[in-house]
Amino acid sequence: MVKIENLSKTFTTKDGKQIQALEDINMVIAEGEIFGIIGRSGAGKSTLVRCINMLERPTTGRVIIDGRDLTAYSDRQLRRARQQIGMIFQHFNLFSARNVAGNVAFPLEIAGQPRRVIQEKVKRSLALVGLSDKAGHYPAELSGGQKQRVGIARALASEPRLLLCDEPTSALDPQTTASILSLLRDINKSLGLTIIIITHEMQVIKEICDRVAVLNQGRIVEAGSVLDIFTAPRHPVTRELIKSVLDPSIPEQVLAGYNPAGTSLLVRLSFIGQSAGEPVISRMIHEYNVQANILYGKIDHIKDTPFGTLTLELSGQPDALNAAVAFLQGKQLSIEVLERP
Amino acid sequence: MSNWFDQIIPMVTMGTLETLYMVFLAVFIAYLFGLPLGVILLITSEKHIKPCPPINSILGTIINIGRSFPFIILLIAIIPFTRLVVGTFIGTTASIVPLSVGAIPFVARLVETSLRDIPWGVIEAAQSMGASPWQIIIRVMLPEATPSLVSGFVLTTITLIGYSAMAGVVGGGGLGTLAYQYGFQRYQNDVMVITVVILIILVQIIQVVGDRIVARLSRR
């Protein structure tokens, strides 16, 4: 659906300095998926999403959407293409002089659609985001969450197949964030819409994304399925970002009560999806003659997949401990032997 | 007292009407040219929807030169031009020329400032939906800036009432001429006082009505 090839963007400042905002970006986004791009502020996320619909022209590289190379397009062709790409923003960017219906009608008006069609589509779009009763209100009269819903309705009015989201929930409180994310997820499912989300919040990625790319200093440092990235992050930036939502460290109180005696190991097990079904721990205890003391555990959800971590203290003979760890490694779960505190 | 009814009231009424005629026509002409110039000034600036540095700097310079002319100097300096357009440089219709010319750069800057206040994200949103620069100007920038544009319109009108009195001193007609010829040259203090009172009332009415309209238009 979207293919970005060797994309770079360099800005020239007033005093002639070159600033490389994006460097050699490559990614392929499949039809119907929710793709997240995460990074700290200043990583180049906003520039990257603006390069996709050419609000910023890339310095080099290509952006191919549905087989059409947008970088080769003239301004006029681009305007046409943009009518098929929706976009929503952190600060909503609604037209304050137009009421809700007027905002949603805007993309249809500029595309020159007849009035009756516009009315029809505005109605449908507002129903989709659950704001049919607010058609006559002005943006200033709405809450943040409602404004973003109008933004979504406006972006969807012209029935695009791709939706770009630039920090869609960063100006919203956690509860509103959740409702906007579930709305995005619903429209992704019901319309088969491809969604690209830019964010600095790992929570957003965790809730709704299928795949994610981690952007740092203008480069993609890591990319893959959200589950893989969360369970086995490789880059320090990724680890740091994940920590904010899935803190794997053991709480202080637990460690305070931990008193190692004899030969023992501290291990952390991560269970993903199906593997949570097998009684691994109990088999390990039976077969390898080790004791397991559960120190800490929790279960999270990454999109729809349950993801659990369990921190155990294993005690027994050194040989038995090694064999037990080898047994666990053979299972479909990830195991990490932790340093002694 | 009969002097009042026979002379002063008709004179003052005539003067007021002349002032209104001059000012409103001049404001109209000033916006006819100033509004597009203000739009061009903004959109040709760096990183706007139609960046064009040469046009922007040339236009900016011309407007600054226009604005640095004291009105009383402009009034006299463009007499040849006024003659060319109207045929004479004396009288109310002739005054409209310097009033308009003097107000065009003022209006252009006011319009530019009003439009510049629109959050860039709103314009970017319109671009992301495939709007052309023309559509952005007509359907986004002007409607979004309407309250601020109306405030500017009120300011321009009031400023031109002041300027029109200056034009009156050099034979432009209206309340200015009245105050100068009767109030100053013939020591008729009552005429002087009444013209000042009428000017105050005019300005008040325009400001109050303008503020109401702005308040009604504001949606932010």
What does this structure look like?
The complex is a heterodimer of chains A (341) and B (220). Chain A is of the alpha/beta class. Chain A folds into 2 domains: 241 residues, 3-Layer(aba) Sandwich (Rossmann fold); 87 residues, 2-Layer Sandwich (Alpha-Beta Plaits). Chain A is 35% helix and 30% strand. In chain A, the strands form 3 sheets. Chain A has a 6-stranded mixed β-sheet with strand order 6-7-8-3-9-10, with helices on both faces. Chain A has a 4-stranded antiparallel β-sheet with strand order 2-1-4-5, covered by helices on one side. Chain A has a 4-stranded antiparallel β-sheet with strand order 12-13-11-14. In chain A, β12 and β13 form a beta hairpin. In chain A, α3 crosses α4, α4 packs across α5 and α5 packs parallel to α6. The longest helix of chain A has 18 residues. The radius of gyration of chain A is 24 Å and the shape is elongated. Chain A starts with a strand and ends with a strand. The model of chain A has no long low-confidence stretch (mean pLDDT 89). Chain B has 220 residues and is an all-alpha fold. Chain B has one domain: Orthogonal Bundle (MetI-like fold). Chain B is built from 9 helices and no strands. Chain B starts with a helix and ends with a helix. Chain B: Keywords: Cell membrane, Membrane, Transmembrane, Transmembrane helix, Transport. Chain B: It is found in: Cell membrane. Chain B: Belongs to the binding-protein-dependent transport system permease family. CysTW subfamily. Chain B: Its main location: membrane. Chain B: It comes from Neomoorella thermoacetica.
